[in-house]
Amino acid sequence: MARRIFYLILTVLLITFPQLEFAQSKATYEGVQVCGMCHKSAKQGEQLKIWQESAHAKAYKTLQTKEADEIAQKLHKKKAVEDAECLSCHVTGAGKDKSMFGSKFKIEDGVQCEACHGPGSEYKSMKIMKDRAAAVKAGLVLWKDEKEIEKFCTTCHNEKSPTFKKFDFKTMWAKIKHPVPKG
């Protein structure tokens, strides 16, 4: 049942967000350790630091709490870290085959860069990342505008979550927005 729900959610996501059609690509998830090597400097807007200080970096850890286990046990009769529905919003690449993960990827790092920007193995090189068009062609997902970003965020931040209270996109986006400074 959980697997069917996961595939239903994935199908809806791919229909709603066609730019996420990386599911059939040969790209693998590399993990925040790989992304962070180049995205930690002031020149890059200290993007790694912004992520490290965010709730996304701690998303998997929240599944390791007693409260999360109680919720998952009540809903699905399993621990939260073993529940596909919980994992689908609390980790990057949930439900993907193990072959889709690079050696430095750690599920414990929660919702990482590639959750929003797509698996990075094909665009992670400096040569490709310096050419925005080449990076996008290689699988880097960039968002057209904040409306599109908000729509994607609400695929997890919504009433389906048993702990959902309210999602104020503008407030939350201000906390995790991570543009590369101009200049």
Number of helices: 11
CATH topology-level fold name = Flavocytochrome C3, Chain A, domain 2
Largest sheet: none
What is the oligomer described by this structure?
Answer: single chain
Q: Structural class, judged by helices and strands?
A: mainly alpha
Distance between the first and last residues' Cα: 51 Å
Number of strands: 0
Tell me the CATH superfamily. Answer: Flavocytochrome C3, Chain A
Specify Rg, calculated over alpha carbons: 16 Å
| Overall number of structural domains | 1
CATH architecture: Orthogonal Bundle
3D shape? globular
Topology as a string of helices (H) and strands (E): HHHHHHHHHHH
**What is the helical fraction, as a range of percent?**
40-55%
Overall description:
This protein has 183 residues and is an all-alpha fold. It has one domain: Orthogonal Bundle (Flavocytochrome C3, Chain A, domain 2). Helices cover 45% and strands 0% of the residues. It is built from eleven helices and no strands. The chain is globular, with a radius of gyration of 16 Å. The N and C termini lie far apart (51 Å). The model has no long low-confidence stretch (mean pLDDT 90).
Set out the fold topology:
Elements (H helix, E strand, L loop, with lengths): L1 H15 L15 H7 L8 H6 L6 H5 L2 H11 L7 H7 L22 H5 L8 H4 L2 H6 L8 H8 L15 H8 L7
